[in-house]
Design goal:
about 180 residues, alpha+beta, five-stranded antiparallel beta sheet, four-stranded antiparallel beta sheet, 4 helices, 9 strands, about 25% helix, elongated
C-alpha cells in the first residue's frame, strides 16, 4: 500500500463542549480514512484533553486551530490558541497534559506570535494489509482462513475470536458461513 506523504487536515473552531465532541468525531473519521484505526481511541482522547484544556484555562468560545499531520510514519496533532500562558504538567493530576503524555510518544509546547501551540506525536507507520490466505484443507472438507492479526481491532470492540479464523466450506468457491 502506498501512502501519499504528509497527509494533512486543519480546522479552525470556537472552543465549546459541543465543538469538542464534534471535533473528536472528525478526527476519528480522518484517522479511519488514513487507515489508522488502531490509533483512533488514544489520539481522540489526547486531542480532547488539549481542547478541554483550552476551554478550561483560556475560556469558552475561544478561537483555536487544530491540525493533524501524518507523514506515513508519525502522526502529529497540534492545538494552537491565542493565550500566551504556557501550560504546566502537574504532578499526580491524572488529566490534562499528564493524560496527553501517557497517550503519546512525545509532546511539547511552543510560543507563537499569537499565543501558543501544544502538540503530541504518535508513531503510526503505514499499515500493511493483505488479503486472507487459504490454508491446507482439514479432514472433513473444512478450511480455515487466516490473515494478519493487525487487521483486527481492540478486543473490547470485536470480542473474543476462537480458533485461527472463520470456518468456511471448501469447494470451487469459498463462501463465509
Amino acid at each position: 500500500m502506498t501512502v501519499p506523504l504528509d497527509r494533512h487536515y486543519l480546522v479552525e473552531l470556537q472552543v465549546s463542549a459541543e465543538r469538542i465532541s464534534q471535533l473528536r468525531r472528525i478526527v476519528a473519521a480522518h484517522l479511519r480514512h488514513w487507515s489508522l484505526d488502531l490509533h483512533v481511541r488514544p489520539v481522540c482522547r489526547a486531542a480532547e484533553e488539549l481542547l478541554t484544556n483550552v476551554q478550561r484555562h483560556v475560556g469558552d468560545d475561544n478561537h483555536c486551530v487544530v491540525e493533524l499531520r501524518w507523514s506515513g510514519r508519525h502522526l502529529t496533532v497540534s492545538v494552537a490558541d491565542n493565550d500566551s500562558r504556557m501550560p504546566r504538567l502537574l504532578d499526580g493530576g491524572g488529566g490534562g497534559l499528564s493524560r496527553v503524555m501517557a497517550l503519546s510518544d512525545s509532546w511539547g509546547t511552543c510560543r507563537t506570535a499569537d499565543g501558543k501551540v501544544v502538540w503530541f506525536t504518535r508513531y503510526a507507520e503505514t499499515p500493511v494489509t493483505t488479503g486472507l490466505l487459504p490454508r491446507t484443507p482439514l479432514p472433513g472438507g473444512r478450511t480455515f482462513l487466516s490473515g494478519p492479526m493487525d487487521e483486527v481491532g481492540p478486543m473490547d470492540e470485536v470480542g473474543p475470536v476462537a480458533g485461527s479464523g472463520p470456518v468456511v466450506e471448501s469447494g470451487p468457491v469459498a463462501e463465509l458461513v
